[in-house]
UniProtKB/TrEMBL annotation:
Stored PANTHER family: DNA-BIDING PHAGE PROTEIN, TRACRIPTIONAL REGULATORY PROTEIN-RELATED-RELATED
Top-level taxon of origin: Bacteria
Species classification: Bacteria, Bacillati, Bacillota, Clostridia, Eubacteriales
HTH cro/C1-type domain ranges (all copies): 5-59
An annotated Gene Ontology molecular function: DNA binding
Name of the protein in its database record: Helix-turn-helix transcriptional regulator
Keyword DNA-binding: yes
Keyword Ribosomal protein attributed: no
Keywords of this entry: DNA-binding
């Protein structure tokens, strides 16, 4: 699954570490998701979308 997390995170001026803290995960988790090496749980996907001010549908696309 591809995503726009890196792009949207940078638009918000957030570092991986900052987004991770807001979502209750490690920076490494955010990095793995951004690099399409890890698919987040549904709960984390919703939290990421909330923190980035978007929807899960806009954040993630089938790869």
């Amino acid at each position: 699954m591809e995503n726009k997390i890196r792009e949207m995170r940078r638009e918000k001026g957030l570092l991986q570490e900052q987004l991770a803290k807001k979502c209750g995960v490690s920076r490494q988790t955010i990095n793995a998701i951004e690099n399409n090496k890890y698919d987040p749980t549904l709960a984390l996907a919703f939290k990421l979308a909330q923190e980035l001010g978007t929807t899960v549908d806009d954040l993630f696309m089938p790869g």
